Amino acid sequence: MLLLGNEAIARGVLEAGIGVVTTYPGTPASEIGDSISAIAAEAGLYMEYSTNEIVAVEVAAGTANCGVRALTAMKHVGLNVAADAVMTLAYIGVKGGYVIVTADDPECYSSQNRQDSRFYALLSNLPCLEPSNPQEAKDMAISAIEISENLELPVLLRLTTRVSHTRGPVTYGKLTKPNLKGEFVRDVKRMVMVPAHARPMHVRLLEKVKKAKEISETSAYNRVVRKVNGELGIISASSAYNYAVEAAELLGLEASILKLGMTHPLPEKMISEFLKNHERIIVVEELEPYLEMQVKAIAKDYAQNVKIYGKMGRLYFPREFEFSTRKVMVGLAEITGKKLPVDLERIDEEYAKIVKDLPSRPPILCAGCSHRASFYVIKKVTGEKAIYPTDIGCYALGIAPPLKVGDILICMGASVSTAQGISKVTGNEVIAVIGDSTFFHAAIPGLINAVYNNHKVTLIVLDNLTTAMTGSQPHPGTGMTGMRSPSERILIEKVAEGCGVKYVKVIDPFKVKEATAILKEALQQPGPSVIVFRSPCALMVAREKRRKGVEIVPYKITDECTNCMACIKLLGCPALIIKDEKVTIDDTSCIGCGLCISVCPYDAIECSGNG
Amino acid sequence: MKEFNIVLAGVGGQGILLAAEILGTAALKEGLNVRVSEIHGMAQRGGAVISNVRIGEKVLAPTVLEGTADMLLGFEPLETLRNLKFASEKTLILMNNEAIAPPELTTKMMNYPSLDEITEKINLFTKNVVVMEAAKLAEKAGSILTRNTVLIGGLAATGKMPVQTESLKEAMRELVPEKYTERNMKAFELGYKYVKKKAKLGNF
Q1: Does A241 touch chain B (CB under 8 A)?
Q2: Contact flag B63-A366 (C-beta cutoff 8 Å)
Q3: Mind spelling out the 3-state secondary structure of A507-540?
Q4: Which of B13, B24, B58 is the closest to A167 by Cβ?
Q5: Does residue A74 register a pLDDT over 90?
């Protein structure tokens, strides 16, 4: 089967007989949970989209400590959220196998930072496996469960974008019936981490690391995959390994290659042998010099004369951005003095001529996106004078002109809290924006803080009734669970009221007049206020219409149009385009939201259907 | 065959990822090793989307090295230009002429460049270009959304693919929702015939 790395992990879940899967969606990890959600009920396992990553880890920690195998999937920054639980769960350990999957995004395709999650393995002392392709992703998910049960310790499975989002052939193994029935055996000294218990459990954890090191020394995932007679050796792991092999081949390098699949703890003996057998070692890894630092430490003890090249001191490979065959090939050529087989200089020269005037095409809010209506209302009321802390989700795209809403963005939930600090010291109007799923994930403690400390901020929750950016996953406000069964919706306005917010309103942002009046009123409040702008995600609306066979009727521009460009200048909707120097509505992308009607000063836009 | 590299490029929402999955699945059906790279999430929303399909026994990397694409399947003219660094004089480019104006052009009130200007630039890299009216053909097949299968049909007709046309069709039947199979088959045929005709005229 041709599977994405993420889908392959979902297959691994089924083959390993994992009973519980918890996740919070995040690119590039989302499809792990989504693939499981689609089949969970049928496969007889339990799956949930937890409210956030630490909750996901804690739920799974509970099940794994009752002997039920579990897996939690998240993106790299999700592991920051979960870190508090992970660090101490490492002391407690598990009874049933438990895998924590985290996916790094080295190119920042869809993230607020790039971080090398392997350092969490060093920090927490948990074993770490790193697949380089979908087949390995599946195999390692199963091995991680075995290692976890052997050591009674959670295991990290670290992916990168190019493992998660690469399709490759995957051979299926046998399915194992998931076990969902656990038993809680009281063991206070092992599981209640008060200081008196934590001290000895830390010692025990370090003993487990020693045992893990023995596993790493004999693991089939750590091996010399190419052995040639010569003084040059390459050490690589994860997606970087693929580029390293192809680049070495293209350059015709005579080099042995040590591939590492279990990267914490590292197989010290195996690496020291490899170092002793070579005069020069090249470490090829994406992001931080995680392997290189440790390989250099090993060299100091076992092979002082070996030369090690990588990205410390002199940088032969970049620490920023993701790798490619090109980048690795250039680095290898520089170290070895080999000639490049492709004339990159000529390509760059010719390509520079082409991209010189090429307009960029950044991601934008979709045509019909309700966030556009919300941002339009916000800008109409407060223009440039308010400050807009924003948050993680599609609405971060609101920073693009002409809307330009979004002045500071740190992490999930930070909008509401940074707003309070800004408001405290500037006296400016501060309007924080956050999505619905992100509200449940991380905004509630911040909101309580605003109420209790009486910070004058307005929080606008852009409720499009789904977790849009990551592919429309459900959240507590949607009335649907990861098992695809209905549940009672938790309403954001009720949560806000429960937190003690005195001014809470709900409005459809496409009702521009009413929404404007409400925002003006909210800004007059002496303390914090919350407005829920509620309107479903445009992609969801279009999909639903297509599914039901309802025609999507685009709007059109009439002869009244004076070409004043107000619609384009105010909204920046991708369905509003210029054709033959006239404003036109592109009827393949317009989904008929009607927002442009409310901004046209000449009533020159109308629905092309009967409506 | 040493390896066969296909670069697919266009705009989010044009069906690029599905097209790449169809190509990869077809290759796997014939027992060939394959890697397909995708981009998801924020980068996708109306932004430039690129996917690579690499077929060959020794293929490991999911992305194509500059200057080594055998085929460039351009879903949109400007996005075809943006990915020319993967092309060489040996590359065959199949380009949909459906222009989607980037917001930068719209806000600056600038016109989209003409097809002649675009082809001229492409010719700096390769003379092997087949321009397809994929959007028109897709609408003829029943929906603009089938433009990706029109292009795959065109790809099959070039005779350069290392997989059989039947495998491509079979992969498409598997991956497209059943109720849309018919229109996609029609789109495939329209794309296939269109390029076959151009091939006969000696266009490439």
Answers
A1: yes
A2: no
A3: ECCCCHHHHHHHHHHHHCCCCCEEEEEECCCHHH
A4: B24
A5: yes
Report how far apart the first and last C-alpha atoms of chain A are (Å, whole number): 47
Does pLDDT of B117 surpass 60? Answer: yes
* Chain B: closest CA distance from residue A347 (Å): 6
- Work out the number of other CB atoms within 10 angstroms of the CB of residue A210: 9
Q: Which of A27, A361, A574 sits opposite B42 (nearest CB)?
A: A27
B12/chain A closest Cα distance in angstroms: 8
Does B174 contact chain A (CB < 8 Å)?
no
Q: Domain B4-133+158-175 falls in which CATH fold?
A: Pyruvate-ferredoxin Oxidoreductase; domain 3 (3.40.920)
- Interface probe, candidates B5, B23, B38, B183, chain A, greatest A C-beta count within 10 A: B38
Q: Which helix (H) or strand (E) holds A568?
A: helix A566-571
The 3-state DSSP class for residue B96 equals strand
Q: How far is CA A540 from the centre of its chain?
A: 21
The answer, yes or no, to whether residue B200 has pLDDT greater than 90, is no
The CATH fold assigned to A370-542 is Rossmann fold (3.40.50)
CB contact under 8 A, B46 and A243: no
From chain A, the residues in CB contact with B47 under 8 A are 361-364
Query: What CATH number labels A551-607?
Result: 3.30.70.20
Q: Report domain extents, chain A.
A: 2-218, 223-346, 370-542, 551-607
Q: Compare CB distances from A354 to B45, B62, B81 and report the shortest one's residue.
A: B81
pLDDT digits (tens, 9 = 90+) for A133-171: 999 999 999 999 999 999 999 999 999 999 999 999 999
Q: Record the pTM.
A: 0.97
Q: In terms of DSSP bridges, do strands A582-585 and A605-607 run parallel, antiparallel, or are they unpaired?
A: unpaired
pLDDT for the residue numbered A611: 43
Q: Report whether A21 contacts A59 (CB < 8 A).
A: no
The matching CATH number, chosen from 3.40.50.2300, 3.40.50.720, 1.20.1110.10, 3.40.50.970, for A2-218 is: 3.40.50.970
Tokens of residue A160, six digits: 């990168």
Identify whether A28 is preceded by a cis peptide bond (ω within 30 of 0).
Answer: yes
Whether A349 contacts chain B with CB within 8 A: no
Portion of chain A with pLDDT greater than 90, in percent = 95
